[in-house]
Every structure is written in C-alpha cells, then in structure tokens.
Write a sequence for this structure.
C-alpha cells in the first residue's frame, strides 16, 4: 500500500466507527486528516488521540445536510491546508424497517437520502472545483454489500447507497480524464454504533471497525475502482445474470437468519 505522507485526506463520519478508525490509520501513515461529523466532542477525542500518537488531525464539526455549513467547512479546510488530495464520503445513517411498516413514512427515505446521497454529493461538488484546478483528486464512497445482494428491511438505506454508487460511477466516467478517480467500498456488516442499533445483530459475526477502517485506507491510498468481499463480488455477478432467481433464493435465507439471530439473542 502507498504511503499517505503529506496527503490531505477529508474523512466524513469520523466521530465514531469506521471513519474514526480509518482516520487513525491514515494519520499513522502520515496523512493530514480532516475530521468531519456533527458531534464536536467525539471529533475532538479522535483528533486528540491521533495527535497523542504523533499524527496530524483537524476537527471540523459540521452537519452535512446543511448546505451553507458544508460550504463554509470546505472553505475553511482549503484555507487551512491549501488543497485536498482525497475525500472519503463515509458519513451515513441507516434505517431498518420493512416496506409494509413504512407506507406512511416517506420521510425515512428523505432522511437517509439527505445524509447518504445528497450529503455526499454536496460535499463532493463543493470540493471538486479545487480538485479539478489541481488536476487530481480521489473520492471514496462508503457503501454496503447489501447493494450487491439486497437484504430485506433496508429499502431506504439501500436506495440511498445505490444512488451514491451511481453518482460515483458517473464521476469516474465523466471526470476521469481530468484526474478525478473514485472508489466504492462495499462493506459487509461491521460492529459499530450503526449496526448496534439493531438488537438481534448482537449475535451476528461481524467485521471490526478497525478492519473496515483498513478497507477505507486501501480505498484512499491504492485507489482501486472498488473494495469488496469475494462474497459481495460473486453475489453481484449472480444478480447481474439471474436477479430473479438469486432474490427468490436469498430472501427466505435472510428471514431464516433473522429468526436464528433472534433465538440466539434471547438465549
Ligand atoms: N456498520 C455497518 O455494518 C456498515 C455496513 C455497511 C456500510 N456501512 C457504512 O459505513 C459508514 C460508517 O458507518 P459506521 O458503521 O461507522 O457507523 P457510525 O459509527 O454510526 O458512523 C456514522 C458516522 O456518520 C456521521 N454522520 C451521520 N449523520 C451525519 C450528518 N448529518 N453530518 C455529518 N456527519 C454525519 C456520524 O457522526 P455524527 O453523529 O457525529 O454526525 C458518524 O461519525 C456509513 O456510511 C455506513 O452506511 C456500515
């Protein structure tokens, strides 16, 4: 993996979970990390820990659903560091709710879209002019393996992640020749505050936040088109060829998985 020495990396969602771990790992490799999220105290803790370990980090508390605040933050980051080499769009929110229980909850879609899709596009487009002016820039998007194989009960969340993936592909296709590259990261389940919100997931085997942070480091430094598990890549290929069959076979398996997890959580 390449060194991160001197690279200015903006990481959203770095007040906790995968983003906080990625920030620590990138700073340990020499990156100057700019930490973005809403919770100022948590951001400060991550910043202070990085600094205590000899790294260089700066905290920029911001709500990425706020247009004016996001643009002001980008101006501040550019004023402080002159340029940004890598943007990691990792901030996100998830909602686990069935479609039947969401028929009068269109706001579920609006809320996750506001962060996962619009928030990512807003920040990317605010930084793009400076990246285009310098003739290079890499943009990473945190997505999920569940867009490769749709897990039930996450319709709003998965739609927002599929939307951001599509934007990432357009960005690479349209601006690749201007030096802009992208990586989509398809995480499996990861043990963080987000997955912890679903009680039955306590019984599920998951990737650690540090392992997942390592995937973001790979995305930021090696810059592949995607970072995925083998299972994700295989199911994605299967869905491309036989979407009906794969969905029919996998949906009952997911329901069975939830029943097993519920039983194990209670015992
Ligand atoms: N955990 C999993 O199983 C899993 C699986 C697949 C993909 N992912 C993706 O991985 C990414 C990181 O999630 P995580 O698991 O590490 O969960 P997490 O610990 O809950 O992190 C989510 C981060 O997003 C930030 N955030 C949320 N809304 C924001 C807003 N409006 N403005 C700015 N920041 C905001 C949160 O910070 P504040 O609350 O301080 O704003 C937090 O730092 C997400 O994009 C998620 O969809 C996670």
């Amino acid at each position: 993996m390449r060194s991160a020495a001197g690279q200015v990396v903006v990481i959203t969602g770095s007040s906790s979970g995968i983003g906080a771990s990625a920030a620590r790992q990138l700073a340990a490799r020499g990156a100057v990390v700019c930490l973005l999220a809403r919770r100022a105290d948590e951001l400060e803790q991550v910043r202070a820990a990085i600094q205590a370990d000899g790294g260089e980090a700066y905290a920029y508390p911001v709500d990425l659903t706020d247009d004016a605040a996001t643009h002001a933050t980008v101006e501040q980051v550019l004023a402080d560091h002159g340029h940004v080499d890598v943007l990691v769009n990792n901030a996100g929110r998830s909602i686990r709710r069935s479609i039947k229980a969401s028929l009068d909850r269109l706001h579920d879609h609006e809320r996750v879209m506001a962060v996962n899709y619009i928030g990512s596009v807003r920040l990317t487009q605010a930084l793009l002019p400076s990246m285009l002016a310098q003739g290079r820039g890499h943009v990473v998007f945190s997505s999920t393996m569940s867009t490769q194989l749709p897990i039930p009960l996450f319709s709003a969340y998965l739609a927002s992640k599929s939307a951001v993936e599509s934007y990432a592909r357009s960005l690479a296709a349209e601006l690749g020749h201007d030096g802009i590259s992208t990586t989509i990261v398809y995480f499996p389940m990861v043990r963080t505050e987000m997955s912890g919100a679903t009680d039955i997931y306590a019984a599920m085997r998951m990737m650690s936040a540090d392992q997942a942070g390592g995937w973001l480091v790979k995305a930021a430094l090696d810059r592949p088109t995607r970072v995925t598990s083998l299972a994700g890549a295989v199911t994605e290929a299967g869905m491309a060829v036989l979407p009906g069959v794969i969905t029919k076979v996998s949906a009952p398996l997911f329901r069975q998985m939830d029943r097993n997890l519920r039983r194990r959580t209670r015992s």
